[in-house]
Design a protein that fits this description.
Layout: H1 15-24, H2 27-47, H3 55-68, H4 94-97, H5 105-125, H6 131-142, H7 145-153, H8 157-173, H9 195-209, H10 214-221, H11 225-246, H12 249-261, H13 273-279, H14 284-308, H15 311-324, H16 338-346, H17 354-357, H18 371-397
Helix pairs in contact: 2-6, 2-7, 5-8, 6-16, 8-9, 8-15, 9-10, 9-11, 10-11, 13-14, 14-15, 15-18
Length: 398
């Protein structure tokens, strides 16, 4: 269903939204520009990365080497998040990275980087939107600092993009009649044949970074029990594998390190609302109050969206919340915003391009820290606005 045929709102004329529309009206030019940007911009960043290439991945690789050598996966000497070599992922992530420890770190880093790039591009290609929208999202991703930086670091954001997109596809394909997102408020209708896919992708995301497990909570609340069962089974298998690989103490090691280093307010260079408030001069207590309030507000928006919005926008609200509820919010986490931005663009919200453009490679160094919580908040506002419009249209038909 196209944005025009769906009666999608086009709220603003001019600016970057108009530029995006002009590109979308020239499919051949859009494809050429998107491919060139996707090759040139990330390629240039990788070529000058030097020893910082695979900064995060090298921590994964080191943890896997420790496990193969019979040592604990987690180095408990760290006291703050961010330093080189810190492995801060759940034990269920170990089965995915262990094979890379069989390779030299340089070869493993380049292989991992290639897989990340492929996952990001494939995730965009799998987005259930019009072809022009996918090409535009590829172009936006190519110039997005969170996307390029995640690739340079070897951070798992590209894999999460793919998993979230597959969950989105599963929701849309579960509804008969090609009705993306489902029309009924709450999104509790539709076939369950794709429920297992939704559950497995949510579980894989949780196995990698915990916070995407919110998708499984969303599935439970919206009574997608097939997804919940499939997700629980997937996590159980991965937990068993992790225990066999790292031993029972791998779980206590993870709990110890995660509780020690995850300070949402005091962790340097992170962009949670509380950390931003602290950087602007708030006291630590006031900044903590800001952080607690912002997380409570995000949870309230997720709960409200489950009750009031159709399935797709409600799910995408949960996707955004998975990052905002993280104990720390690094700039590269904003790569996942490409997923809701694609839906918004396809629904006619041309100004959604502001989200990835606001954190462009070309303005890095000029951005105030508040930019990152602001683009997450803007995405939530746009999702709620379009979700309400869609639910009002649906209720008018019933």
């Amino acid at each position: 269903m196209s944005a025009t045929s769906a009666g999608a709102r086009v709220p603003v004329v001019g600016g970057p939204g108009a530029a995006a529309l002009r590109l979308m009206r020239s499919p051949a030019l859009l494809r050429v520009v998107a491919v060139l940007a996707a090759v040139v911009i990330p390629g240039a960043v990788l070529l000058v990365a030097g020893d910082t290439l695979g900064y995060d991945f090298r921590a994964y690789h080191a943890a896997a080497l420790r496990v193969l050598g019979g040592a604990p996966a987690y180095d408990l000497s760290y006291v703050v998040a961010g330093p080189y070599g810190l492995f801060l992922y759940p034990p269920t992530f170990l089965p995915f990275v262990l094979p890379f420890a069989l390779l030299d770190v340089t070869a493993a880093t380049w292989l991992w980087t290639a897989l990340l790039a492929g996952a990001t591009v494939f995730g965009i290609a799998r987005m259930p939107v019009r072809a022009q929208t996918r090409w535009l999202v590829l172009l936006l991703a190519a110039q997005s600092w969170p996307a390029v930086y995640a690739l340079k670091l070897g951070q798992v954001g590209g894999f999460l993009v793919l998993l979230f997109v597959e969950g989105w596809r599963a929701i849309e394909e579960s509804h008969p009649g090609g009705d993306p997102g489902g029309d009924r408020v709450g999104g509790r209708v539709g076939k369950t044949g794709r429920g297992a896919v939704l559950g497995i992708t949510g579980a894989l995301g949780a196995a990698i970074k915990l916070q995407p497990g919110l998708v499984l909570v969303w599935a439970l609340v919206t009574r997608r029990f097939t997804a919940v069962i499939a997700g629980a089974a997937t996590l159980a298998v991965l937990a068993l594998l992790a225990t066999l690989i790292g031993g029972p103490t791998v779980w206590t090691g993870f709990v110890t390190i995660i509780t020690r280093v995850t300070d949402a307010v005091g962790t340097p260079h992170n962009f949670t609302p509380g950390a931003v408030a602290l950087g602007l001069g708030a006291t630590h207590d006031a900044a903590t109050l800001v952080q607690t309030g912002s997380m409570a507000l995000v949870l309230a928006v997720v709960g409200w969206s489950v009750l009031r919005l159709p399935a797709t926008p409600s799910y995408l609200v949960a996707v955004v919340a998975t990052q905002l509820l993280s104990p720390v919010l690094w700039d590269h986490y904003a790569i996942v915003l490409l997923v809701p931005v694609a839906w918004l663009l396809d629904r006619g919200w041309r100004w959604a391009v502001v989200v990835p453009l606001a954190t462009s490679v070309f303005v890095i160094g000029l951005l105030p820290p508040i930019t990152y919580p602001a683009v997450f908040a803007l995405t939530l506002v746009l999702l709620v606005a379009e979700g309400r419009r869609k639910s009002a249209s649906a209720l008018g038909r019933y």
